[in-house]
Design goal:
Helix content is 63%, strand content 9%. By secondary structure, it is of the alpha/beta class. The strands form 2 sheets. The chain has a 6-stranded mixed sheet with strand order 6-7-8-3-9-10, sandwiched between helices. A 4-stranded antiparallel sheet has the order 2-1-4-5, covered by helices on one side.
């Protein structure tokens, strides 16, 4: 399914006819049952048994109540009255207690399944996200889709199954009630349905309206969540305070809420207005049935016990029908929301689990041929006609203005984006034919916007090679290469120190220290054949920067190195330099060759050099 068509798909799903709405409840019911059954077979079976009891026993309780009243009337004032009435009372008490216990069992099963199923669905969503392309994940419509899926779909499968069980319970009740009401009049059964049907039609209409409202304002809701993040997170607090952003951002947050609230209020008022009038209609029909039964009893056509039973059956029967129609409506509602989940899960996987684990020509390195890429939905080339090769011991520096395509190129080399044109070969095999895990274990990358994991120091570094040696000596070696060891040794718990401020006793680092941790994470991947460094020293001082490149020089003998930097004092260490502009390579050569060419590289180098004079 194309993300570009998701809005149209949502709209088409939100606007079927009433009959289609009523008939659509089965669409995801089988999947929902499968999910619940796979989550816990014992709990599902217990729910089914408890539903059966709750469905059948109320009619039995009503019938026993009739026997109690008739027996009291017939034996009132006689010696055998207690002996004949009390067994019925005890029987009804046992039935009522069984119903109460069965309902509690149902509530317990639902609570336990809700927690387990919510975890399972969230795992499915997160796992799916890991198997999509980076371009898909960065797409705003995908973000809307995953927001909708995670917000409600994690509970909808259980809700759908709960409603199905409830529908079965109400159906059993109605069958047993109908058997008893038939003795009074077949028309009484029809009267129950007529009283409840208008409310059902109105509810199914408003459910569609609610889903459309939920679907089409997801971008606004995402903006609202973003404002909450900016106003409430520690990493944005400094700028918010310094630039005095609290007032304008809070006002924007309030304005957005006010607009969303107006839409909610309009829908709520319409829904409740119609609900009130249709509720009055149902009440009139119910008390009309009461009057019918009472009049018939007063005329001697029924006993007092029968009258009591029929009144109870009418009341419980209308409640069962209303609940059944609400369940059908709710199942339709659940289907609408679950469609978002399954639309997400149906997206084609980009990340595959198979593929080669060794290249056709081991040790050949990287070969890039006529590489070109457009971002989805864009007509502009992010990069175009890029070619080069690297082998062990080679180093390549890539320079260029912001937006020249440098970072995009790195993502293509790592197989994070599928190339629009051309190919990237690693050890003689196209990257798309590699097993993703086998390919990426050969890469060690530090991006300019590296992650600051709210984990311990050791975990932050160890994630660079999470399947490798996690001993303290291995972490110390990586930290030494990344120049993080000196300040780590000063931390209270060294590698066990919690970083960041999200959790208790967290220690915040400076920008340069975080960058050294990220460098250490890259160096932790000892088996990597390609080291990619995207502005790796942007937050470091000159001494630290110089030391970083001394460490890089140590690994040049055995690895390929790609360096992206705006600092020409470091770029010149690379054996080859590639200058990019507007996605294309405009110059290449050594530092000396490019200076002699007196082109864009020389212009940028000289401009930066004058800044130090």
């Amino acid at each position: 399914m194309s993300l570009n068509n998701s809005k149209q798909n949502d709209q088409s799903k939100a606007e079927p006819s009433y009959l289609q709405n009523a008939a659509s409840v089965h669409i995801y019911l089988g999947r929902a049952f499968s999910l619940v059954w796979a989550t816990s077979k014992p709990l599902t079976l217990v729910m089914a048994l408890a539903t059966l009891l709750v469905g059948v026993l109320p009619a039995l309780a009503a019938y026993i109540g009739k026997l109690i009243v008739d027996t009291v009337v017939a034996t009132q004032g006689t010696e055998q009255a207690l002996g004949e009435v009390l067994p019925y009372v005890a029987a009804e008490g046992a039935v009522i207690i069984t119903i109460l216990v069965a309902n509690k069992v149902l509530e317990t099963c639902r609570a336990l399944l809700r927690a387990q199923l919510g975890q399972q669905i969230n795992e499915m969503i997160l796992d799916k996200a890991q198997r999509l392309s980076l371009a898909q994940i960065e797409d705003s419509e995908f973000n809307d889709m995953i927001l909708k899926a995670r917000r409600d779909a994690s509970t909808r499968p259980l809700s759908l199954v709960n409603r199905a069980f409830s529908l079965a319970k109400n159906a059993l009740q109605l069958i047993s009630f109908s058997v008893l009401l038939w003795q009074f009049s077949p028309w009484a059964i029809l009267l129950l349905w007529i009283a409840a049907l208008p409310a059902f039609v109105a509810e199914i209409k408003f459910s569609g309206d609610a889903f459309r409202l939920f679907t089409f304002r997801s971008p606004d809701r995402r903006k609202q969540l973003y404002l909450e993040t900016v106003l409430g997170r520690e990493d944005s607090a400094k700028e918010v305070k310094i630039f005095g952003l609290s007032v304008p951002l809070m006002q924007r947050y309030r304005d957005m809420f006010a607009r969303l609230y107006r839409e909610d209020r309009a829908l709520t008022l319409r829904r409740q207005w119609w609900g009130a009038w249709l509720g009055v209609f149902g009440a009139v029909m119910l008390y009309g049935a009461f009057a019918w039964v009472v009049a018939s009893t007063a005329m001697g056509h029924q006993t007092l016990g029968e009258m009591t039973m029929y009144l109870l059956l009418f009341k419980q029967g209308q409640s069962a029908i209303s609940d059944s129609l609400a369940d059908l409506n709710g199942m339709y509602d659940d289907n609408l929301y679950m469609s978002t989940l399954y639309d997400l899960l149906a997206l084609p996987d980009f990340e595959k689990t198979d593929g080669v684990i060794q290249g056709a020509i081991p040790g050949q390195g990287i070969r890039v041929e006529n590489l070109a890429f457009k971002y989805p939905g864009s007509d502009d080339w992010a990069i175009r006609d890029v070619s080069f090769s690297l082998s062990a011991g080679d180093s390549l520096a890539i320079v260029g203005d912001n937006g020249a395509g440098k970072t995009t190129l790195i993502k293509l080399l790592a197989g994070l984006y599928p190339a629009t044109e051309g190919r990237v070969y690693f050890d003689g095999t196209p990257v798309e034919e590699w097993n993703p895990e086998a390919l990426r274990v050969k890469l060690a990358v530090i991006f300019q916007d590296f992650m600051r994991y709210q984990f311990s120091v050791g975990e932050n570094i160890g994630l660079g090679d999470h399947d490798g040696d996690q001993s303290e000596s291995a972490l110390e070696r990586a930290a030494q290469l990344g120049m993080a060891k000196p300040f780590i040794d000063e931390l209270p718990d060294r590698f066990e120190t919690q970083l960041g401020k999200w959790f208790n006793n967290g220690r915040e680092l400076s920008g340069g220290q975080w960058q050294k941790v990220a460098l250490s994470r890259a160096f932790k991947r000892d088996g990597a054949e390609l080291l990619v460094m995207d502005e790796p020293t942007a937050a470091m001082d000159a001494d630290a920067e110089a030391e970083v490149y001394e460490r890089v020089a140590e690994v040049l003998q055995s690895k390929m190195v790609i360096l992206i930097s705006h600092r020409f004092s470091t770029v010149r260490m690379a054996k080859n330099i590639m200058v990019m502009a507007q996605g294309q390579v405009i110059e290449r050569g050594t530092h000396e060759q490019l200076l002699a060419l007196d082109g864009r590289y020389a212009e940028l180098f000289n401009k930066q050099a004058r800044g130090y004079q």
